[in-house]
Amino acid sequence: MVIRIYEQDAYVFEFEASVTSVDKEKITLDATAFYPGGGGQMNDLGTICGLKVTEVTEKGDDIVHKVPGHSMRPGDKVWCSVDWDRRYDMMMGHTAEHLLFGALKREVPEIDIVKIFIAPESKYVVVDRDVGWDVIEKAQMSVNVSINENLSVTKTVMDRDDPEMENVRAKMERIDGDVITVVEIGDADTAACGGVHVRETGEIVALLADRKVSAGKDGYAIHFRVGLDAISRSMELANKCLRMTEIMGTKPDDAVSAAQNMMHDLGIRTEQLRAALPYIIAHLVPETVGGVPIYSGVLPANDRNAIANASEKIRNAGGVSVLVTKSDTLSVYVSSGSKNVDCAKVLKAAAEKFNGRGGGKADSAQGGVPDVSKAKDVLDEIVRSVKDALERSR
Questions:
Q1: Is residue 166 part of a domain?
Q2: Residue 168 belongs to a domain with what CATH number?
Q3: What counts of helices (H) and strands (E) characterise the chain?
Q4: In the chain, what are the helix, strand and coil shares in percent, each to the nearest 5?
Q5: Which positions ≥6 away from 113 have C-beta within 8 Å?
Q6: Domain count within the chain
Q7: 154-188 pLDDT, tens per residue?
Q8: Domain boundary among 59, 82, 105
Q9: Are the CB atoms for 185 and 207 separated by under 8 Å?
Q10: Cα-based angle 7, 197, 185 (whole degrees, multiple of 5)
Q11: What pTM was computed for the model?
């Protein structure tokens, strides 16, 4: 059985060991400080005899190290080095995750953790429900208080049937064995966890929750940063906020209410534009080619029902409509009551020319183009194709 150095002391990152087995690129050692990953934390990387360790996994009682290009044999003494900067970043992140979820749990007792992900490039906790930024802010403040207090992080083991396990945050169904490793962070959090952590919360330096996104059926992912990365990102976001409030003509402390008012006003204006669409479309002046009227225009809002109704009327009257709407992207609608215009064909060709997509039937097609600034160009391209098709049929 391998001696797991990381369980005894997570701060050991250089060590000597003996090779116990070799299977092509994969080797096992009699002792290792390489953490194989688990509980959402990624595995360690590093070197063995100066060769890169590209993967570390757990297989039964062994830790398997993948070392491409090695020539090691069983019995060889080898010098090993864990990538310490990477490991320490994840130690800070994993400890911070305990604090963050513990703080969220105090704010929203019914919340549950679904999974976590701790890696140098990204750190997040997935919870089973949406929580507002007001809740996240309170939890974040609590975490940073715990960091500032430099609480001790201790690790103990408890029996599964120990009555004190009632006070430990744990998903018992995910834990094998009768002996459970418990990580206690002062009076801030106590949770079952076999990962690697810092010794004192002050080592985390700071935590910043900077993003919340849907995780689909799993719930919501709250992304966070630690250490100097958290401070740097905080300053970056603060500066962006200051620039934004200057543009908005408001004070930083009033930015949220000002943005809410602007969104409210924007919503009203958007609804007004949508309500005006039927009137705008009805007053488009058609251009006639071969006796077929072509109604075209760039519209200031997108309302599928209004556009569908207007397009149907034009199509039923034997005309052609080419309507482009502007929002985050360009939406394009083409309909035709003339058998000489294949809507799907002309839209697909135009959309591809502007890195967009489109499809449908001969008498009706829809598509989109990512570059909103190309609205007039897209419209002109499709109208030109429609005119060409009608001219060729004459």
A1: yes
A2: 3.30.980.10
A3: 8, 22
A4: 40, 30, 30
A5: 101, 125, 126, 127, 128, 171
A6: 3
A7: 999 888 888 888 888 877 776 777 788 899 999 99
A8: 82
A9: no
A10: 115
A11: 0.75
